[in-house]
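Person: Please comment on this record:
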Amino acid sequence: MDLKELKALAQALGSVVLIEEGKPSLIVLELERYQALLTGQPAKSLAGEAANSGSVSEADPELVERLNRDIALLKEEIKKREIQELSEETVVD
């Protein structure tokens, strides 16, 4: 899969999870979703968007749920890193 295909998937789904050795290794997000995660604003639900567009097949809800869980994990990781950076800045000051 090339970068154009990944970009198209991220734009269509809102995110793409790359899996290596059976584990998620990287998440590609649309810029709008990433910024929402950084600012703490609620991102639109992938399940809601897909349901509204009528593009969800019977097998897709599991994929959408897994993507939403991965995004939530990424959001937690971003928060942890921000807290760690703030703590380090406070100690230095």
User: Anything to note?
Assistant: The helical segments are 3-13, 31-39, 46-53, 60-92. The radius of gyration is 15 Å.
